[in-house]
Amino acid sequence: MDASVGSRTVPRVYLSPPHLSGRELDYLRDAIDSNWVAPLGPHVDAFEAEISELTGVPHALALSSGTAALHLALVVLGIGPGDEVACSSLTFSASANPIRFVGATPVFVDATEETWTLDPALLRQALDERPQIKAVVAVDLYGQCCDYDALRALCAERGVALVQDAAESLGATYREEPAGAQGDLAVFSFNGNKVITTSGGGMLVSRTDEWIAHARKLSTQAREPAPHYEHTEIGFNYRLSNLLAAVGRAQLEVLPDRVAARRRINARYRELLPDVEFMPEAAYGTGNCWLTCVLLPEPERVRLALEEEDIEARPLWKPMHLQPVYRDAPVYGGEVSARLFEHGLCLPSGSALGEDDQRRVVETLRAA
Ligand SMILES: Cc1ncc(COP(=O)(O)O)c(C=O)c1O
């Protein structure tokens, strides 16, 4: 549906649509011409190498989604029934669901007011009280890294693995290091709404070769090295297609531009809405500003007013500890993310968002 502005008809403004570079077809044509259209091939290998180079993390595995990457991270860590996994509560459900896939129990931990990411003090309390916690899933929210100095120290002290859910933070930094370099394992998503996309896809990275080698085997049905199909463990069908890796390589070329554009959009919102409270940017890093988020007295009224103008906005993630499906899961804190959910709104933030459209968003928000 299109909206009318004066006598003009303007297209819908989406929250975070794909933004192609124009080079995707060249890469796709190469994949098709070479007949590498399977879930393996030169673009998959090159995409992995390029993500390794970008993040400085030596081992990378291209997968069909970020969710698959999180699932395999927990499997190679040996997490299973009887174990608990601490997880940021303020996140998308895909951060937590893989904990259930492996039969473990999630323990949700609230965010800090200052960063909206995992609260190290509450995590310490959870780790002190729950020796069953074997891993932590720390989520980089809306493109902002967690405070990894604190989280890494805690996890190292307790011998607990740190899984960095960097699905939203590709291109961000933490203390001048690329996002994804902070966890024992880290996960990226190339879903259609992310900073760059393969339409759907993910990546698992780690400095520990054995974990990535094991995940690689598990991602292709856990086939043993034999001429016939021999299996000693349960595998999955999680590999990324060479076609999608080709798209990913074209997208990766423009990642710095895409991050710069989203940061510009975020800065412009701040400039045009000086009396509105925004998600804080932590001093320890540079976010990729995947989505620009604000706190408002009545966010739903504003969302509906934007929708009237054919502008897509969205509430913040509903915290996992408030989700009916996780009703019984233990939770540490919870008030901060509950308040952020009550007042938060994600504004259109796509890297192709034009100044006119952004001004229309701001004017509609102001009027509401
Ligand atoms: C924080 C977070 N974790 C995990 C995922 C899952 O990634 P995917 O959609 O690629 O499975 C997403 C996004 O979709 C996400 O935002």
What's the helix and strand layout?
Layout: E1 3-5, E2 8-10, H1 24-33, H2 42-55, E3 59-63, H3 66-76, E4 84-88, H4 97-101, E5 105-109, H5 120-129, E6 133-139, H6 148-158, E7 161-165, E8 173-174, E9 177-178, E10 185-189, E11 202-206, H7 209-219, H8 242-253, H9 255-272, E12 277-278, E13 285-286, E14 292-295, H10 299-308, E15 314-315, E16 331-332, H11 335-343, E17 344-347, H12 355-367
Parallel strand pairs: 4-5, 4-6, 5-16, 6-7, 7-10
Antiparallel strand pairs: 1-2, 3-11, 8-9, 8-13, 10-11, 12-14, 14-17, 15-17
Helix pairs in contact: 1-8, 2-8, 3-7, 5-6
Q: What would the keywords be for this entry?
A:
36% helix; binds pyridoxal-5'-phosphate; 12 helices; alpha/beta
